[in-house]
Amino acid sequence: MIAQDTTAFHRSRLEAEMARARAAVEAGADHARRTGGTMPKSDPEDLEARLWAQGGYWAMLFCIWFVFLAPIALLLSVWD
Fold first, then answer.
1. How far is CA 55 from CA 12, 44, 48, 80, in A?
2. Degrees (nearest 5) of the Cα angle 70, 76, 77?
3. Global pTM?
4. Mean pLDDT computed over every residue of the chain
5. Spatial CA neighbour of 40 closest among 49, 31, 51, 48
6. With contact defined as beta carbons under 8 Å apart, do 10 and 4 qualify?
7. CA 20 to 30 Å from 32, out of 17, 57, 61, 75?
8. b vs e for 50-75, b when ≥16 Cβ sit within 10 Å of the residue's Cβ?
9. Is the four-CA dihedral 7, 9, 15, 18 of positive or negative sign?
10. For residue 64, what is the enclosing H or E element?
């Protein structure tokens, strides 16, 4: 595979791909300079996804505290 990559045909094809990619990047940079370079506005926040994430946060907190407190409560309940 390495020998194939070093042939003149593959090198010229790679150089052509790099030239096309470089031209596309330069065109994008020129367009950004001409238009002021502002980013497109992001989508509005999905409230349902935010609520789901917040519920997951509280569930995780509950599980962590339960794991910490359950052994202590068990020891206190069997302590004579």
1. 55, 20, 11, 39
2. 90
3. 0.40
4. 86
5. 31
6. yes
7. 17
8. eeeeeeeeeeeeeeeeeeeeeeeeee
9. negative
10. helix 47-78
55-75 pLDDT, tens per residue? 999 999 999 999 999 999 999
Structure tokens at 43: 């989508």
Q: Within a 10 A sphere around the Cβ of 45, how many other Cβ atoms?
A: 8
Residue count (the chain): 80
Residues in CB range of 14: below 8 A, 6 or more apart? 5
pLDDT of residue 39: 60
Gap between the Cα atoms of 80 and 7, Å rounded: 84
Q: Which residue has the tokens 């020891």?
A: 75
22 pLDDT tier (thresholds 50, 70, 90) = very high
For residue 6 the two structure tokens come to 């070093």
pLDDT value at residue 2: 61
